[in-house]
Write a structure and sequence with these properties.
- The structure is a single chain.
- This protein is α/β, with parallel strands linked by helices and 161 residues long.
- It contains five helices and eight strands, in the order βαααβββαβββαβ.
- It is globular and about 45 Å long.
- The mean pLDDT is 92.
Length: 161
Amino acid sequence: MNGPVHTYVFVEQANPLQQKLIEIVASEAEELVRIRDGRYTRSQDVERLLRPALLQLGFHHGVTSQQVPGLFAPDSDFEIDFYHPGWKVAVEVEKGKHFNVWRDVCKFVESELIEHAVLLIPYEKSGGKGRRDNLLVSTADSLSNIRRLYLALKSFLLIGY
């Protein structure tokens, strides 16, 4: 099965749900491209699309310290898009052209309950004059230069859609 483009930014131990996550994204590839390229679509549209399969896999959606005590400091306003408490896997979904990858990184490394981070981002975006920019590669390049930041994690996986 050909899956979505994916790469590890950091890996000490492979994400135990990697194959399942790739299969879920692959199964919705056509709709994900429509959302990715849509002018008035948002990351919440991607979350809504993937939510049933991720919940079936054991993930919780829209998780804060209220739902999972200890996920973040009690006064933190962080929320994780999807979190699997058994495997300690967190998934953040991004859609926009100028999403804040560093806020996602902060969420991943701030929590003592996250061992495997997953960032689901557009594989590419429209550039000027009909050009397509490879967003996954440029994000991977910028995140790969800061390995010490990830020492609390076992893995950090990027999946492009």
